[in-house]
Amino acid sequence: MSHRTLIRGGLVVTAADELHADVLVEDGKVAALAAHGSAAAEAWTADRVLDATGKYVIPGGVDAHTHMELPFGGTSASDTFETGTRAAAWGGTTTIVDFAVQSVGRGLREGLDAWYAKADGNCAVDYAFHMILSDVNEATLKEMDLLVGEGITSFKLFMAYPGVFYSDDGQILRAMQRASGNGGLIMMHAENGIAIDVLVEQALARGETDPRHHGEVRKVLLEAEATHRAIQLARVAGSPLYVVHVSAEEAVAELAAARDKGLPVFGETCPQYLFLSTDNLAEPDFQGAKYVCSTPLRPKEHQAALWRGLRTNDLQVVSTDHCPFCFRGQKELGRGDFSKIPNGLPGVENRMDLLHQAVVDGHISRRRWIEIACATPARMFGLYPQKGTIAPGSDADIVLYDPHAEQVLSAETHHMNVDYSAYEGRRVTGRVESVLSRGELVIDRRQYTGRAGHGAFIHRSTCQYL
Ligand code: DUC
Ligand code: ZN
Ligand code: ZN
Ligand code: ZN
After folding, report:
1. ipTM of this predicted structure
2. Reported pTM
3. Who lines ligand 1 at CB under 6 A?
């Protein structure tokens, strides 16, 4: 028997349109939209009517950069697929794209299967995977083709973290050449990790062990240099390039220059670079460790360039790089040596709200909010129009968003499995009211009604943003 839900009276906001429309959902898909009050909408019947008066009706968020349960620095990211996807739902995100990891000396298959096993049966919302390449060799290159056929259509490479994830320029070029042949999208962690490791060693030798030195050694110039080099390598290989977690004005300039030449080069930034800064890294009593991530937080002056990049489309996506580690017992591993602080910030639950605050503050328009947080990440990673929009035939991943509710972000009230909030005490206007995932209410008027195992693996097609 078909199951019909009617979302009535809200303002439907997509990347393309804003309209006062009712949305009919049938069997987990969007069946139709019609102007509120129109004869067509008035004639609809449904098992369930959700009153969206005064609310925005927006596509569920697509967070294209999360690390649930990531092993890092002798510990493991504190959100599991269960807790992390539940927190995502609370924050209005209904699809995550997480990173499966190849271990050095191992194949892609083994790494990917381990990530399937972690996620299977545990997710509250839908999920997909990118693959991190840690050991590019002939076998790895061949396996890339198989993964593209399996819906794993993007590959992350690291110019940083020698000995762990690092690839040299030859390995990067080979992976890019392979991707240009099989339709895969190369995602780049652009920091010169060889140079950074020299600066880390020298800083520690001088006794500079506090968290703020993490920001000082991971220099803007070394992000810009790596970004430039990645772009040139992609040009040589004839492949598109997506640079992850862009944090610095000089890196945005490299992307902008490439895009001005018409090159298929794309950039992602994250809420932490838009809302936090080196001031946080300098917080006393080792509190700065809460803000250690890579690329690092930058001086406040960089934020304007990131917002400008988001407005001009030199940056296309805001994802979180959600990679939470508790302060107690995890971040504390780096007391006396900032290089031992596990890298990463929590944020999967906060992204949609922080970006809505950016709408309120006038940094971006309402439709641009949906474009950078839903539609473009879906297009970029082959999920559109199943995800990222509200249109007939799309999955009914829909958020009823209250644009007037006031909230204070805090670890006391968040649902991420981490003992601090990077945004503790921050007031934001706007809050998720209800969330549908494939037509099922997973958040119902601020109550969690979802379940682990509802979320399904999504087989992605190749990049649709070219
Ligand atoms: N950066 C982080 O902050 N955490 C995980 C990996 C990365 O590149
Ligand atoms: Zn029914
Ligand atoms: Zn990275
Ligand atoms: Zn990451």
Report:
1. 0.90
2. 0.98
3. 67, 72, 189, 293-294, 321, 323, 343-344
